[in-house]
Amino acid sequence: MDPRTALILVVDDDARSARTLANMLREDGWDVDVAIDGASAIARLTRKPMPSVLVTDLRLPNADGIAVSTFARSRDAEIPIIMVTGYPHLAAQKLSPEPIVLTKPLDYADLSAALARVGVRS
Amino acid sequence: MDLHKRVAELRQYVDFGEADARRLADVRELLAPDFARIAQEFYDKTREHEDAHAVFTGEDQIARLQRSMQTWLGRLLGGTYDAAYYVQTQQIGEMHVRIGLPQRYMFTAMSRIRLELERLITERTPERAKETNAALHKALDLELAVMLEAYHDAMAARVERRRAIDQNGSELAQADVAAIELTHELVVGIDESGLVRLFNAGAEATSGYGREEMIGQNLVTSLVAEESREALERVLADEALKRFRVDSLVKTRAGKLRDVGWDVARTRIGNIHVFLIGHDYTEERTLAERSRRSEKLAAVGTLAAGLAHEIRNPLNGAQLHVAYLERTLRRANASAEMLEAAGVIGEEIKRLATLVTEFLDFARPNPIERKPTSLGALVTRAAGLIEPEASLAHVRVVRDLPSKDIEADVDGSKIEQVLLNLARNAVEALAPVTSSGGSGVVTFRLRRQPKSALLEIEDDGPGLPGDDAPIFDAFYTTKPQGTGLGLAITHRIVTDHDGTIEVDSRAGRTVFRITLPLRGAPERSHD
Fold first, then answer.
1. Cβ within 8 Å, pair A106-B316
2. Distance CA B466, CA B503 (A)
3. How many C-beta atoms lie closer than 10 Å to residue B336's C-beta?
4. Can you tell me the distance from the alpha carbon of B360 to that of A85, in angstroms, rounded to the nearest whole number?
């Protein structure tokens, strides 16, 4: 899989931040879809194409980041998950295997590095 | 019978002659390099035993005793066993009465030393081991015989003084005496010159001194810690005060300080002019202090958990947009000033984020996860981690570890955080010294106590600014860039381990002293 054409699903209830993040990712060559609550993220995951990476907030309206992640794994057990949260310890405990956890405020360079790590899976 | 005759008789009895003396002197050089180690191992072992350990006043005393034991080992293998020699042995026995060490420990201690010396002799002079060890046994038994007799004599003299006091020292009625002996409060009577004339069982229990030692002594100078002497002396001297209350710090035999509130009455009975009824508040004060701190923590914790999320979310938006702005500016070839401005915003956001993280750590810490942990390894690791920044600041890091490692049920990463916090503070405290060309030392010390481990971080810097600065309180800081949370987090981690932390600071020596129970208490919720 070529990481440069991989599709990322970004889930964040702060619509402006989600949009800005999506813009930056697109500028860097990624394909990006955005959802601004848990329910619409799950709805997006039922449709094709299946995203190759999930970047989600933990606290979300209408189903939280854990629910979204669990659903994503039910569709693709191998999907890499990057959780962006103000509660890093909670996020790590509730999912198994543990997702990659990045603490808010998100440093874009950290996210790029995390994507580079997971994007090259075979 | 005088000492010289007694010893001569005993020596004859066990057949200890010049040949034995020579044999011991012959192995002295071979064994001398091990004296320091034997003494250290001996006292490290003592730390595991509560009754024996209770007589120590602190690390300074233990260091002194360790040196005395080395001297004693040299003397034991010195080859000269004359009257002067046994006078010193006698003094060792009397000293043990004075510090209050139970006699049984002298006996069993000797067995530890005996086995170690025997092992070394057998290993290093196998061809002469049999005779030399025989000489060693005789010398040690003589040593013990003289020490124990001196102990017994000193103890008997004490008991006799006490009996005399109890029989005719007091003019109080029998029932009154019984009541005074039953109470846990301290009841002390002094005469017109301030000398102790009555010293009840409660006073003995709190202070660790017997009445046979205290009667006839000046109350203030022999029982009250220096810093609170003046206050007590002043009110005692004021004849106009008939009944009053005063607090003072009582210094116990083992050097511990107790908070005692005295109810004082000027009432003349026989040779007693003033009665002092004391109540020991130490535990109550510690508890009150602890609950004050934990109430403050609980309030802060609730606030913190709610606020952290509310702060991190907008920070997240700000951070992302700044990153986007920076990227756009760079692409548009914006001026260096504009790029720098965007960079500053990014840095400030990160600083704020760090504060939030530290604050959460302090206010809502993760519950501790206890695991059997080698404290020696932990200290070594923490010292290694601090070494690079210490050496940059021209500070030397010293590890002072016990002869035998200590294992305790602790959360290793949390205790490491504590050690690093304290060591980092110590290195920073040394900055004024080292930046003007001086040098500094930070010492990590680990010691065993009967049921706990003692960890010390010591520096030889200028000391803390004031005695009662609330350094463990949240948001108290003296550093321009400090959050005021470092020591508060440290304190919290230690108390979450059911441990204690205290500081002892003067110019040239500041010690943070942590005790951690070796075994964790039953599970407890930390919310």
1. yes
2. 12
3. 7
4. 14
Q: Which of residues 61-100 of A touch B (CB under 8 A)?
A: 84, 86-87, 89
**What confidence tens digit (pLDDT) does each residue in B81-91 have?**
888 889 999 99
Q: B373: helix, coil or strand? A: strand
Q: Cβ(A9)–Cβ(A84) under 8 Å? A: no
C-alpha neighbours within 13 Å on the C-beta side of residue B346: 18
Verify whether the Cβ–Cβ distance B357 to A103 is below 8 Å. Answer: yes
Extract the residue ranges of chain B whose pLDDT is less than 50: 522-527
Backbone phi, psi, residue B509, to 5°? -160, 115
ipTM: 0.84
């070839």: which residue's tokens? B333
CA distances from B467 to B484, B506, B508 (A): 18, 9, 15
Closest CB from A17, A24, A89 relative to B316:
A17
Question: Chain B: nearest CA to A105, how far in angstroms?
Answer: 4
Contacts of residue A17 in chain B, CB cutoff 8 Å? 316-317, 320-321
Distance (Å, whole) CA B20 – CA B307: 79
Contact B327 A107 (CB under 8 A): no
Contact of B242 with B265, CB cutoff 8 Å: yes
Quote the minimal CA–CA distance from B514 to chain A in Å: 28
Q: Does A28 touch chain B (CB under 8 A)?
A: no
B321/A87 CB distance under 8 A: no
- Phi, psi dihedral angles at B199 (to 5 degrees): -150, 105
Token readout for B189 is 């009577």
DSSP B523: P
Name the minimum distance, in Å, from the CA of A21 to any CA of chain B.
Answer: 7
So what's the pLDDT on residue B172?
66
Condensed to tens digits (0 to 9), the pLDDT of residues B405-422 reads 999 999 998 999 999 999
Which pLDDT value is given to residue B525?
41
The rounded distance, in Å, linking the Cα atoms of B52 and B109 is 10
